[in-house]
Amino acid sequence: MANEDIGKGDKLPKQIRTNFLVIGSGIAGLSVALKLASLGKVIVLTKSKLDETNTSLAQGGIAAAWGKDDSPEQHMKDTLKVGNGLCEKDVVRKIVEYAPEAIIDLANLGVDFDRNKKTGEYDLGKEGGHTRKRVLHVGDYTGKAIQDVLIANAIKNENIELLKDHMAVDLLTQHHVKNYASKKDEKIHCWGVYAYDSPKKRVRTILSDFTILATGGAGKLYKHTTNSSIATGDGIAMAYRAGATVRDMEFIQFHPTMLFSKKVGQSFLISETLRGEGGILRLSSGEKFMSKYHELADLAPRDIVSRAIDKELKKSGEEYVYLDITHKDKDFIINRFPHIYKTCKEEGLDITQDWIPVVPSTHYTCGGVVTDEYGATDVERLYACGEVASVGLHGANRMASNSLLEGISIAQFIFEKIRTDYKKPHSFPSLPNWDDTGVFHTQEWVVISHGWKELRDFMWNYVGIVRSNSRLERANRRIFPLMEEIDAFYRKNPVKQDMLELRNLISVGELVIRSALFRKESRGLHYNEDFPNKDDKKFKVHTVIKSRGVSNEEHLE
Length: 557
Known about the structure:
Elements: E1 15-23, H1 27-36, E2 42-45, H2 54-57, E3 62-63, H3 72-82, H4 89-109, E4 124-125, E5 135-136, H5 142-155, E6 160-163, E7 166-173, E8 190-197, E9 202-213, H6 234-242, E10 246-247, E11 252-259, H7 273-276, E12 280-282, H8 302-316, E13 321-324, H9 330-336, H10 338-346, E14 356-365, E15 368-370, E16 382-384, E17 389-390, H11 402-421, H12 446-462, H13 469-492, H14 497-518, E18 544-545
Parallel strand pairs: 1-2, 1-9, 2-6, 9-16, 15-17
Antiparallel strand pairs: 3-5, 4-5, 7-8, 8-9, 10-15, 10-18, 11-14, 12-13, 13-14
Helix pairs in contact: 1-5, 1-11, 3-4, 4-11, 6-14, 12-13, 12-14, 13-14
């Protein structure tokens, strides 16, 4: 029976067996878990609380061609345009055509999307890159509303076990089998995962017929991010170490409007829907400036808005620009944006009267683990969905509110594929359990805190909104010594969550830097001052990095 507290106490043995293992509890993870529960036993692994996800932080909404003036074809055209030539057209079509059904599925689960008080129809918002109003929402806390409904449904599902405070360490493959002899051209198989039980400070072995990565992105790779603290690239790093292919890691989306706050640790997103409802970006002088950069002005794609703000701030030397919604009706602002209104009030700002100080911040990882349209990776029995995956929806830039749509859509396609292929439980090779014997505590854990700061600082300064060859090379020179230092520390010390997260982020950082160095052009989210001209046909290709796979013999029995 589902039990959100099953991770507490000593109820679980060191080795666990299940039909389906889902790593991550956001919209992608819980959606696929609820669907797979009709086929067998599901374990959902989450390294923190069930609702500590980027889904919970999503304010804007979920995109779907719902309006009478809209169509999946138009939704696809907008997505392809924002993706700057790197979207997979067939995948985009499949997802946008499923979108209205996804809305119905969520509504049937209990998500109460906002409706127009006069017509009773769904109230549709408009965001950057969209040419139609097609963003369904619940106030300005859509992600939280969806997250809460999914958690409630998962808890009452008898075929789902929810393991909180369990962080995946590494994927289990045949290369973990002692003295395993690989055959020529043999495909890598995933048999489950090693999972660190934080309260008990031990690593468990979870064997699964199928493993689904839904771990989200890697926003914490940068000094400033709108993401939850859990966004440490775990799934991308684990899949890459196991032998999966990753691609397009250079495309990191920076959201243009994070609330500028003097409070340490404050990272509050000001939703793009505020601009969709008429919000205007202004300089301190009051000047509107976005029309200089794009025909859609304040509703231009995020990469263009972020670079425009970055350029204006470098010209002025100021710390932030402003977002102005004060010309709208006071009651409309408070009712449409209750969460933003309340949070800004706590900062001493009344957004019905005051302009909001905003700065760009890391927001979304557009690249990831390569999958087909059904979420299948090139590792057998390993699937990925949501931000961790590169299925081909976003290309070189994600269009606003396509992220929640991607998570629930690919969850459905994974379910359809596994339902067709799943005949009976698989047999497993003799896989060793985790063993900390021989490792020691160096008492030098300050290495980890220093590593965190160093990594996030140089990624922000050298691999940020605007890049150059020299800055990328500088980052490349700094990532490898840090990688070696943390890897050596990992092998000598007992497992801890912050160490595992830093290890993963460094791996992802190296992939981002390597991919950015490869792309000798500016396209979408990747802007290099040394290659200012866009759409170089030579580089209208994905940046693909294949892994050799890595074992972790130091920690195996």
